[in-house]
Design brief:
The complex is a heterotrimer of chains A (703), B (155) and C (126). Chain B is mainly beta and 155 residues long. Chain B contains five helices and ten strands, in the order H-E-E-E-E-E-H-E-E-E-H-E-E-H-H. Chain C has 126 residues and is α/β, with parallel strands linked by helices. Helix content of chain C is 44%, strand content 18%. Classes of the chains: A alpha+beta (703), B mainly beta (155), C alpha/beta (126).
Chain lengths: 703, 155, 126
């Protein structure tokens, strides 16, 4: 077979595989939930079947072989020979995972079977109680046409061949055409055809569905009989065919009309000139179809609702739109300085321009947005693997999988999410025995949900396990010197100890979520995306980790502030409220420390000016504003700012491209006057100021 | 024109010559993207003293290095007469603050001499050779060495 | 005038491969994603030859062929089944439905073109 190897086609095949694997996993998820219909099984079957088909075209043999076994088992499910029981579905899901691995391996050109495949194949075979027709038998699937050489070699080139051909009604019903068969035969050698019209009945007795004509064909050829039979491949079940060799003697002319004679009398001779007469029953139609044929123009492409675009192009567009938004802001500022009368045309026009620019920006951002579904499906697999490794029974429920998030955010979220999911199975859920004792179903549930909430994406990972064992967590933290034994910690504060660097180490983390990586790493990864992680846990009922993320990494809502003559931006998501220093209740602590009482807690005051080395903290805070910022819902601080200018959407620009990371700074942006403003990173400022364990901890100690 | 430019050799390279605190420097013109007048920068916290901050270059955030301070010749108090030479070093764009751009010269490889011992140690670390043009000594700057340290950390 | 082919396959990869192969052979290619889509395309313009997959959502290959034969009973439109299936009973079902020929995947360009040329009523170019 000729294997096709264009890179584009390969890419498109693998892209389609992703979609098919997604459809397959969706189907399994439906089946597991018991909500499936017959079509669900069909869709899963087709997905695996299509992967097999494509893989065959590209010669990915290991993939074809496994898909074939898998497909055979799915076919049994489809036909009702197999029940979709729990065990079966679990096996199918594992097979689905393996299939995904084989697809990845094929993409990475790693080829070959993968470990575990053989076992799965055996399990599949024993499940259906038989060996499927082996894929090694694939060559036998090849149509006769390609296997003819072998047959031909067995015989001498026969010289003169005599063929008796009598079409049955089915041959015409299936739109096969004797004339075309004869034409194909002509390519093999010199052909003489004689139609035996002797059995054609009188008109009143004529059954128009039947052919009544028999052909006696003589063919002078060097080709084998197999080659000749191949011509009749499509009609062998719809005709009487007798092929016999006459040796080199040749075919004697008889009294039957010759091919040429028949053509000349045939009404559609002009159409079928080089071939042979068609059967009478079909002539009119043929003329019509032949004359109706119109063509011209290039082949039409597949009807798809999507196009593939290079990500670089999208990013370039995003950059340009970002510039457009900045230019618009700059223009607005210049025009404002002109002090035109209100209600002037320029300002009105500018306002619509601004709106348009905003809409374009939104539209362009949406190009990068992708549903979280593929990521969630990956997590389904993580759950399965984690369940197997820990000997727990776990059901993953996903919600809001069509929620869209920036592609880069999704990509960079996979690692922290994987960690949290493993954590939920490994540490969150109890053992089946413990669950039984607690009166819970043995099977634990992990809910993974996504939703848009006030301009951010919320991703929750909830388990219905035993909740955080706070006593134990506290003990561990104390033993590691992360918290003082005297500290008076609230439940939330204890929960947050889990995020302390060095809290989890290989000792108490099982092999599964271990690898020396703690939740602190997962959290800091989320933070680099401008996200935040919080925990809520109820003893006996379970734990929820909530990740809050920006919709995009390209723009954000920010508060434009002024500190020591510099303009900066504070992410709006971190800001709780602003307080006027005049009315705020400010206390001094020690020589330099100051706190402000807010919502029944004492919050440390930090001067951004001093933090950034721009000035010494002003002693008199009159005329300043305190910006209350929080991180991950537990630690707070109050930033001294000189003025609040504006709240607006800002385009996020990297400082790291041309410079590097600056501590306390998340990124930069360009303001309306064209100047750069730094976007501060409240998390790192709070961490520096009050320590990782949180401001409230320290303050409660101080009280 | 100078005698270095009249000698036509296949190895001639164009360099941009500029002055920093009274001393002449040059580097390959291929590294120069554009030359702009001084604009106010946005200060960067925790930066080395020679990093003057960042400017907006058509939507990119570009750090500005005070070459005088970087070379140990004392900080420049930048004003409207100063220029920022926008250079591309590797994959990074960096603005270099200089007094004035004086000339564009063609220099042959063989005219570049090793750094003389008399040069101040501070400067020596940043130059890869010298060219004498019309009695003036022009120091050929090694751009990779003037990059602000925050860049080297991430690079 | 080149032959006009309608290829019906739910796999984008297969559609791409078929389209490229037939395009190279000088045929005019129209593509459909499943049986229903195929019937819609036929309503626009009738091809000289139809190539169809069997396993497809909504309307599978058998149903598609039956419908084509019913709807266009006065036309000659050879229909080639291109599938990984090779079971005789499926072949018989396809023939019953009115399939002209049966080509077994894996996809082979030459094989496909040869089969088309064997069943197509020459409209010109061939």
């Amino acid at each position: 077979m000729s294997s096709v190897s264009s890179d584009d086609f390969r890419d498109s095949f693998f892209q389609e595989c992703e979609e098919l694997l997604e459809a397959m996993q969706d189907g399994f998820a439906l089946m597991v939930s018991g909500a499936h219909e017959a079509e669900t099984v069909h869709a899963v079957f087709r997905a695996v079947h299509s992967i097999k088909g494509g893989a065959g075209a590209f010669g990915f043999d290991a993939l074809v072989a496994f898909a074939h076994h898998f497909e055979t088992a799915l076919d049994k499910l489809r036909s009702g020979d197999l029940e979709a029981g729990e065990e079966t579905l679990m096996l199918f899901q594992r097979c689905g995972d393996h299939l995904a691995d084989l697809v990845s391996a094929a993409r990475d050109e790693a080829g070959g079977p993968l470990p575990g495949g053989e076992e799965l194949r055996e399990e599949l075979d024993s499940l259906i109680g038989e060996q499927p027709q082996e894929e090694e038998g694939l060559p036998a699937f090849e149509p006769v046409v390609l296997d003819l050489d072998a047959m031909g070699e067995a015989q001498e080139g026969p010289g003169s061949i005599s063929i008796l051909f009598e079409p049955e009604a089915d041959l015409f019903r299936s739109n096969n055409e004797p004339a075309l068969l004869f034409r194909s035969l002509e390519r093999l050698g010199r052909l003489e055809a004689r139609a035996d019209l002797s059995r054609v009945p009188l008109l009143e007795d004529l059954d128009p569905e039947q052919c009544h004509i028999q052909w006696q064909l003589g063919l002078e050829t060097e080709e084998s009989e197999g080659e000749i039979r191949a011509v009749f491949e499509f009609v062998e079940d719809a005709c009487r065919l007798e092929i016999s060799s006459l040796g080199a003697a040749g075919l004697e002319d008889g009294d039957l009309p010759s091919l040429e004679d028949l053509i000349s009398v045939s009404p559609e001779a002009s159409l079928l000139a080089e071939t042979a007469p068609p059967p009478p029953a079909q002539t009119a139609e043929k003329t019509e179809s032949a004359t109706e044929k119109t063509s011209g123009g290039p082949p039409r492409g597949a009807a798809t609702a999507t196009i593939r675009v290079d990500l670089d192009r999208v990013d370039k567009l995003i950059n340009l739109v970002g510039e457009l938004v900045i230019k618009e802001a700059m223009l607005s500022q210049s025009i404002a300085q002109l002090e035109l009368p209100s209600e002037n045309e320029v300002s009105g026009g500018l306002e619509s321009l601004k709106q348009l620019a905003g809409e374009i920006q939104e539209g362009v951002m949406a190009i990068r947005a992708q549903p979280v579904k593929p990521m969630f499906q990956r997590m389904a697999r993580i759950v399965r693997e984690a369940a197997t490794a820990t000997g727990k029974r776990v059901r993953l429920v996903t919600q809001g999988e069509h929620t869209e998030v920036d592609k880069t955010v999704i990509e960079r979220l996979i690692d922290p999410l994987t960690h949290m999911i493993r954590n939920a199975v490994d540490h969150g859920l109890e053992s089946p025995e413990a669950r039984r004792e607690a009166g819970k179903p043995e099977e634990g549930t992990v809910i993974l949900s996504a939703a848009h909430r006030s301009g951010r994406v919320m991703i929750d990972i909830s388990d219905d396990g035993g909740g955080i064992n706070r006593e134990k967590v506290r003990k561990i933290a104390e033993s590691k010197g992360l918290v003082s034994p005297e500290a008076d910690l609230s439940a939330v504060e204890i929960d947050n100890l889990l995020f302390l660097p060095g809290f989890s180490s290989k000792e108490q983390v099982s092999e599964l979520s271990g690898r020396g990586v703690g939740l602190d790493v997962a959290r800091s990864e989320v933070q680099t995306l401008g996200g935040r992680v919080s925990i809520a846990s109820t003893p006996g009922e379970g734990t929820t980790f909530s990740i809050s993320l920006p919709l995009t990494l390209a723009v954000m809502e920010g508060m434009v502030i002024e500190v020591a003559g510099q303009t900066m931006v504070v992410p709006i998501t971190a800001i709780q409220e602003s307080l006027q220093t005049r009315t705020a209740e400010i206390h001094s602590i020690g020589a330099t420390g100051r706190v402000v009482a807010n919502r029944e807690r004492l919050v440390p005051i930090v001067d951004l000016g001093e933090t950034f080395g721009l000035r010494r903290t002003p002693q008199n805070l009159d005329g300043h504003v305190l910006l209350m910022v929080e991180t991950d819902s537990t630690t707070h601080c109050a930033l001294i700012v000189d003025a609040i200018q504006d709240q607006r959407q800002v385009v996020i620009k990297s400082l790291e491209t041309n410079y590097g990371h600056v501590h306390g700074v998340a990124a930069a942006t360009i303001l309306g006057d064209g100047r750069i403003a730094l976007i501060i990173d409240p998390d790192s400022i709070i961490r520096d100021t009050v320590g990782a364990a949180g401001a409230d901890l320290q303050l409660q100690l101080a009280r | 024109m100078t005698d270095t430019t009249t000698r036509t050799s296949g190895k001639g390279r164009e360099v941009v010559a500029f002055r920093v605190s009274g001393q002449d420097f040059c580097f390959d013109i291929m590294s120069v993207r554009e030359i702009r007048g001084w604009t106010e920068t946005t200060l960067l916290p925790h930066a080395q003293p020679y990093v003057k901050g960042v400017i907006n270059l058509r939507g990119s955030v570009v750090p500005v290095v005070d070459l005088s301070e970087r070379l140990g010749l004392g900080a420049i108090e930048p004003g409207p007469r100063h220029v920022i030479i926008i250079t591309v070093i590797g994959s990074q764009t960096v603005g270099l603050l200089a007094d004035v751009v004086s000339d564009i010269l063609t220099v042959n490889e063989e005219d570049i001499q090793p750094v003389p011992e008399i040069a101040a140690d501070e400067v020596k670390a940043y130059i890869s050779g010298v060219v004498v043009v019309e009695g003036k000594m022009i120091r050929k700057m090694d751009l990779s060495r003037v990059l602000p340290t925050a860049i080297r950390e991430v690079a | 005038m080149s032959l006009k082919i309608l290829a019906v396959d739910d796999s984008r990869t297969m559609r791409n491969l078929i389209s490229a192969a037939l395009g190279r052979a000088g045929f005019e290619v129209d593509l459909a994603e499943d049986g229903e889509d195929g019937l819609r395309r036929l309503a626009d313009a009738l091809p000289d030859v139809i190539i169809t997959d069997i396993n497809m959502p909504r309307l599978d290959g058998f149903g598609f062929i039956e419908n084509v034969r019913k709807l266009y009973r006065d036309r000659i439109m050879p229909i080639l089944v291109l599938t990984t299936e090779s079971a005789p009973d499926l072949k018989a079902r396809a023939r019953e439905a009115g399939a002209t020929g049966w080509i077994v995947k894996p996809f082979d360009e030459e094989k496909l073109i040869w089969a088309i040329e064997r069943v197509a009523i020459p409209g010109g170019g061939t």
